Predict the structure.
Amino acid sequence: MVDDEAFAPVARDLRACGLSVRFKDVVSGGLELVVGGVRTGCQLGDVQGDMAMAARVEELAFHTQNAVLENFQRLPAGLPWPACRAGHPHPMDLVRGDDEEDWPHWGCPVDASYRWPVGGHPGRGGR
């Protein structure tokens, strides 16, 4: 079972960058993350319910980004996820807050001033 509330901002950022997202039942009883029609092999389980929402979102964003980047060559979008600003071919980094209450954000690894909160990514090519 995936924490739908915590996964919603991550799913929004995937869709903003042109990637579909869904879950597929697997034989083991879990749910496999499917991005852009590609089965990633990643099963996102429940995050700890006693964690702050920001920490739950961060954990799901971390595992989702790893799964997407591991399957990058198989994805139809042709851009790393999440896409950085126009002219920057690298993915954005997931930046953790100082504590579990701080909302995580995506940051450009070259220009730290270019950042978007998880769930607020502007889409391909940024702004």
